[in-house]
C-alpha cells in the first residue's frame, strides 16, 4: 500500500522545467550568486500538471500575491522572478504570511518558480551590463571581477568614450529607465560652489560636474560601489543607499543618482524574456508581467 502511494506521488517531472533550469544557468550561472542569496529552482512544478506546448513562462521582478494571480490568469506553467520568493528559510506555511500565501498559491496551481537574482546581476550580458548602458557608451568592466566566468562580477564601471555633464548623464538614465524623476546628490565641492540649497541650484551644480566614469549597481549598491574601481568613479548609479553611504560618497567627490530599488531592475525584464525564449528554442513562450511595479511613487 505504501509503495502504491509513493508511486502515485512520484509523477513525471515536466521536461520544460529541466530545460528552463539549464537555460537560466547559462544566462546567469548560479555560481555567481552571493553566498547569502537564494537562487535557482525555488518551487518545483507539479508533475501532475500538463504543461502547455510550448510552455508558458511568466517573467516578473517581484512575486507578490497580485502577480501570482496575474500569472495564474495568464495560465503560466513557470514563473521566473528576479527577486526570490521565498527568500529566507521558514518553518511554517500558513495563510497569515503573505510569503506563505504566494508559495501555497503556486503549489496549488502546480506552477514552478525560478529566481536568478544576484547571479543575473553579476553575469556578463546581465542586469548590471544593461544598467551600465544607461550612462552612455564606453569601456565597461566589473567593479569586482569574478574570475570563474569571463566578464562576470559585481557592479560595473564605465569609462565614457566622451565626457558628459552630470546633467546629461541624469537625462540619459531617466530615458533608459523610462523615469520622470530620479534623486541626485551632487558631489559636495560642486554643490558648495553653486551654493546648492534646492533643485534649481542643484541643477546648476550638476551642469558644472564633468563625468568621465560612472559606476553602477542594480538594487541597493552602496557596499559594491564603494569598493575597487567604483571608489574613483565620478558618479554612482543605483536604486537606493543609506543616508550615511550617500554622505560619504558626496564628501569624497562622487555624485550619486538614485532611482528607487526596483527601477534599476524592472526594465531588464523584456530582455530576460527574450533570452529565455531564445535559449528554450521554441519550447517556451515568455510573458512579462503588467502588474508588477515599484511600491514607491512620487506624490
Oligomer: single chain
Cα-atom radius of gyration: 21 Å
**Total domain units:** 2
In round numbers, the mean pLDDT is: 92
How large a portion of the residues is in β-strands, by DSSP E?
Answer: 15-25%
Instruction: Give the biggest sheet.
Output: 6 strands, mixed
Instruction: State the CATH superfamily name of the largest domain.
Output: NIF3 (NGG1p interacting factor 3)-like
Structural class: alpha/beta
Could you tell me the CATH topology label of the largest domain: Udp-n-acetylmuramoylalanyl-d-glutamate--2,6- Diaminopimelate Ligase, Chain: A, domain 1
Helices and strands, in N-to-C order? HHEEHEHEHHEEEEHEHHEHEHEHE
Low-confidence stretches: 1-8
Termini Cα gap: 63 Å
CATH architecture of the largest domain: 3-Layer(aba) Sandwich
Strand order of the largest sheet: 5-8-10-11-12-9
* Text of the CATH class of the largest domain: Alpha Beta
Number of helices: 12
What's the shape?
elongated
Helix content: 25-40%
* DSSP strand tally: 13
What's the helix and strand layout?
Layout: H1 2-9, H2 15-27, E1 40-43, E2 55-60, H3 65-73, E3 78-81, H4 98-108, E4 112-115, H5 117-122, H6 127-132, E5 138-141, E6 144-145, E7 153-154, E8 156-165, H7 166-177, E9 183-185, H8 188-193, H9 199-208, E10 210-220, H10 222-225, E11 235-240, H11 243-251, E12 255-258, H12 269-280, E13 284-288
Helix pairs in contact: 2-12
GO molecular function: metal ion binding
Organism: Cafeteria roenbergensis
GO cellular component, one term: mitochondrion
